[in-house]
Amino acid sequence: MQTPEKTSQIIASLMSVQASGPAEMIGNLTVGDLMASLRTRAFGLSLILFGLPNLLPIPGLPILTGIILAVLAIQIVVGRDVPWLPARIAGTTLPRERLNQVMARTLPLLRWIERVTKPRFALAAGPAARRVVGLTVLVLAVLLIILPIPWIGSMPQGLALCVLGLGLTERDGVLVSAGFLLAAVATAVGAGIGYTVFASALAVLT
Protein backbone atom coordinates (compact mmCIF):
# COMPACT_ATOMS: atom_id res chain seq x y z
CA MET A 1 0.00 0.00 0.00
CA GLN A 2 1.35 3.42 -0.97
CA THR A 3 2.09 5.76 1.92
CA PRO A 4 -0.06 8.93 1.73
CA GLU A 5 1.82 12.14 1.03
CA LYS A 6 2.67 14.21 4.06
CA THR A 7 1.28 17.73 4.26
CA SER A 8 4.76 19.23 3.94
CA GLN A 9 5.33 17.19 0.77
CA ILE A 10 2.06 18.48 -0.73
CA ILE A 11 2.97 22.10 0.01
CA ALA A 12 6.57 21.67 -1.23
CA SER A 13 5.28 20.06 -4.44
CA LEU A 14 2.74 22.86 -4.84
CA MET A 15 5.43 25.53 -4.61
CA SER A 16 7.65 23.59 -7.02
CA VAL A 17 4.88 23.25 -9.61
CA GLN A 18 3.96 26.92 -9.31
CA ALA A 19 7.60 27.95 -9.74
CA SER A 20 8.02 25.80 -12.88
CA GLY A 21 5.13 27.43 -14.74
CA PRO A 22 5.43 29.65 -17.82
CA ALA A 23 8.03 32.40 -17.54
CA GLU A 24 5.41 35.15 -17.70
CA MET A 25 3.62 33.60 -14.67
CA ILE A 26 6.65 33.17 -12.41
CA GLY A 27 6.31 36.62 -10.89
CA ASN A 28 2.50 36.61 -10.83
CA LEU A 29 1.43 34.04 -8.26
CA THR A 30 -2.04 34.78 -6.93
CA VAL A 31 -4.02 33.59 -3.93
CA GLY A 32 -6.41 31.91 -6.36
CA ASP A 33 -3.54 29.96 -7.94
CA LEU A 34 -2.64 28.47 -4.58
CA MET A 35 -6.22 27.68 -3.61
CA ALA A 36 -6.90 25.97 -6.94
CA SER A 37 -3.84 23.79 -6.45
CA LEU A 38 -4.85 22.51 -3.00
CA ARG A 39 -7.82 20.43 -4.23
CA THR A 40 -8.65 17.87 -1.51
CA ARG A 41 -8.02 18.72 2.14
CA ALA A 42 -8.13 22.36 1.04
CA PHE A 43 -9.31 23.88 4.32
CA GLY A 44 -6.64 22.26 6.50
CA LEU A 45 -3.91 22.95 3.97
CA SER A 46 -5.10 26.55 3.60
CA LEU A 47 -4.69 27.15 7.34
CA ILE A 48 -1.12 25.88 7.09
CA LEU A 49 -0.29 27.68 3.86
CA PHE A 50 -1.53 31.05 5.12
CA GLY A 51 -0.34 30.43 8.69
CA LEU A 52 3.30 29.68 7.81
CA PRO A 53 4.15 33.23 6.59
CA ASN A 54 3.19 34.56 10.02
CA LEU A 55 6.02 32.61 11.63
CA LEU A 56 8.40 35.21 10.19
CA PRO A 57 8.29 39.01 10.65
CA ILE A 58 7.04 40.22 7.26
CA PRO A 59 5.35 43.66 7.42
CA GLY A 60 1.92 43.81 5.81
CA LEU A 61 1.56 40.08 5.13
CA PRO A 62 -0.32 39.27 8.39
CA ILE A 63 -3.11 41.64 7.31
CA LEU A 64 -3.50 39.93 3.93
CA THR A 65 -3.36 36.42 5.38
CA GLY A 66 -5.73 37.49 8.16
CA ILE A 67 -8.37 38.64 5.67
CA ILE A 68 -8.07 35.40 3.69
CA LEU A 69 -8.23 33.27 6.84
CA ALA A 70 -11.28 35.17 8.13
CA VAL A 71 -13.16 34.38 4.90
CA LEU A 72 -12.14 30.71 5.11
CA ALA A 73 -13.00 30.51 8.82
CA ILE A 74 -16.60 31.59 8.21
CA GLN A 75 -16.93 28.88 5.56
CA ILE A 76 -15.60 26.24 7.97
CA VAL A 77 -18.16 27.34 10.57
CA VAL A 78 -21.09 27.04 8.13
CA GLY A 79 -19.89 23.61 6.99
CA ARG A 80 -18.72 24.20 3.41
CA ASP A 81 -16.72 21.33 1.90
CA VAL A 82 -14.89 23.40 -0.74
CA PRO A 83 -13.28 26.78 -0.02
CA TRP A 84 -14.39 29.87 -1.96
CA LEU A 85 -12.78 33.30 -2.12
CA PRO A 86 -14.14 36.54 -3.63
CA ALA A 87 -12.57 37.35 -7.00
CA ARG A 88 -10.80 40.42 -5.60
CA ILE A 89 -9.05 38.37 -2.90
CA ALA A 90 -8.36 35.41 -5.21
CA GLY A 91 -6.72 37.78 -7.68
CA THR A 92 -4.37 39.28 -5.11
CA THR A 93 -0.76 38.84 -6.20
CA LEU A 94 1.65 37.28 -3.72
CA PRO A 95 5.40 38.03 -3.69
CA ARG A 96 6.62 34.70 -5.09
CA GLU A 97 10.26 35.15 -4.10
CA ARG A 98 9.35 36.11 -0.53
CA LEU A 99 6.85 33.25 -0.30
CA ASN A 100 9.48 30.75 -1.43
CA GLN A 101 11.85 32.09 1.23
CA VAL A 102 9.16 31.72 3.88
CA MET A 103 8.44 28.14 2.87
CA ALA A 104 12.13 27.22 2.81
CA ARG A 105 12.56 28.48 6.37
CA THR A 106 9.30 27.19 7.89
CA LEU A 107 8.72 23.81 6.23
CA PRO A 108 11.37 22.16 8.48
CA LEU A 109 9.20 23.07 11.50
CA LEU A 110 6.16 21.57 9.78
CA ARG A 111 8.11 18.37 9.02
CA TRP A 112 9.18 18.16 12.66
CA ILE A 113 5.55 18.40 13.86
CA GLU A 114 4.49 15.80 11.28
CA ARG A 115 6.70 13.18 12.92
CA VAL A 116 4.14 12.78 15.71
CA THR A 117 0.92 13.07 13.68
CA LYS A 118 -1.51 10.24 12.97
CA PRO A 119 -5.31 9.79 12.81
CA ARG A 120 -6.55 9.60 16.43
CA PHE A 121 -9.01 11.06 18.95
CA ALA A 122 -11.63 11.31 16.20
CA LEU A 123 -14.08 13.36 18.30
CA ALA A 124 -11.69 16.32 18.33
CA ALA A 125 -11.25 16.15 14.55
CA GLY A 126 -14.89 15.51 13.61
CA PRO A 127 -17.58 17.77 12.09
CA ALA A 128 -18.50 19.50 15.37
CA ALA A 129 -14.85 20.15 16.20
CA ARG A 130 -14.33 21.59 12.69
CA ARG A 131 -16.86 24.33 13.47
CA VAL A 132 -15.01 25.14 16.70
CA VAL A 133 -11.80 25.25 14.66
CA GLY A 134 -13.52 27.72 12.32
CA LEU A 135 -14.46 30.02 15.21
CA THR A 136 -10.94 29.77 16.61
CA VAL A 137 -9.41 30.60 13.24
CA LEU A 138 -11.73 33.61 12.96
CA VAL A 139 -10.44 34.97 16.28
CA LEU A 140 -6.83 34.40 15.21
CA ALA A 141 -7.49 36.06 11.85
CA VAL A 142 -8.88 39.16 13.56
CA LEU A 143 -5.77 39.31 15.75
CA LEU A 144 -3.59 39.11 12.64
CA ILE A 145 -5.45 42.01 11.06
CA ILE A 146 -5.65 44.41 14.00
CA LEU A 147 -3.04 43.47 16.57
CA PRO A 148 0.59 42.61 15.74
CA ILE A 149 2.42 41.54 18.90
CA PRO A 150 5.65 43.47 19.68
CA TRP A 151 8.97 41.61 19.26
CA ILE A 152 7.41 38.32 18.18
CA GLY A 153 5.06 39.72 15.51
CA SER A 154 2.34 37.24 14.55
CA MET A 155 4.25 34.08 15.47
CA PRO A 156 1.79 32.85 18.18
CA GLN A 157 -1.16 33.09 15.78
CA GLY A 158 0.84 31.56 12.93
CA LEU A 159 1.93 28.57 15.02
CA ALA A 160 -1.62 27.95 16.28
CA LEU A 161 -2.96 28.11 12.70
CA CYS A 162 -0.37 25.64 11.43
CA VAL A 163 -1.06 23.16 14.22
CA LEU A 164 -4.84 23.42 13.72
CA GLY A 165 -4.46 23.03 9.96
CA LEU A 166 -2.16 20.04 10.28
CA GLY A 167 -4.55 18.46 12.78
CA LEU A 168 -7.46 18.83 10.33
CA THR A 169 -5.41 17.59 7.38
CA GLU A 170 -4.06 14.54 9.19
CA ARG A 171 -7.33 13.99 11.13
CA ASP A 172 -5.33 14.11 14.35
CA GLY A 173 -7.60 15.15 17.22
CA VAL A 174 -4.67 15.42 19.64
CA LEU A 175 -3.02 17.97 17.36
CA VAL A 176 -6.31 19.87 16.96
CA SER A 177 -6.56 20.02 20.76
CA ALA A 178 -2.98 21.32 20.93
CA GLY A 179 -3.94 23.95 18.35
CA PHE A 180 -6.81 25.09 20.57
CA LEU A 181 -4.37 25.48 23.47
CA LEU A 182 -1.92 27.48 21.36
CA ALA A 183 -4.77 29.63 20.06
CA ALA A 184 -5.88 30.34 23.64
CA VAL A 185 -2.34 31.45 24.53
CA ALA A 186 -2.11 33.66 21.42
CA THR A 187 -5.51 35.20 22.17
CA ALA A 188 -4.61 35.84 25.82
CA VAL A 189 -1.34 37.51 24.85
CA GLY A 190 -3.10 39.59 22.19
CA ALA A 191 -5.89 40.59 24.59
CA GLY A 192 -3.34 41.59 27.21
CA ILE A 193 -1.44 43.78 24.76
CA GLY A 194 -4.67 45.24 23.41
CA TYR A 195 -5.81 46.13 26.92
CA THR A 196 -2.44 47.73 27.71
CA VAL A 197 -2.54 49.85 24.55
CA PHE A 198 -6.15 50.89 25.22
CA ALA A 199 -5.43 51.75 28.86
CA SER A 200 -2.37 53.77 27.90
CA ALA A 201 -4.29 55.70 25.25
CA LEU A 202 -7.12 56.37 27.70
CA ALA A 203 -4.65 57.62 30.32
CA VAL A 204 -3.12 60.05 27.83
CA LEU A 205 -6.55 61.37 26.82
CA THR A 206 -7.63 61.90 30.42
Task: Describe it.
The chain is mainly α and 206 residues long. Helix content is 68%, strand content 2%. It contains nine helices and two strands. A two-stranded antiparallel sheet has the order 1-2. Helix 4 runs antiparallel to helix 7 (127-146). The chain is globular, with a radius of gyration of 17 Å. The mean pLDDT is 80.
Average pLDDT level: 80
Cross-sheet strand order for the largest sheet: 1-2
Which percent range describes the beta-strand content? under 5%
Helix content: 55-70%
| Count of separate DSSP helical elements | 9
Secondary structural class: mainly alpha
Low-confidence stretches are: none
Note the overall shape: globular
Order of helices and strands: HEHHHHEHHHH
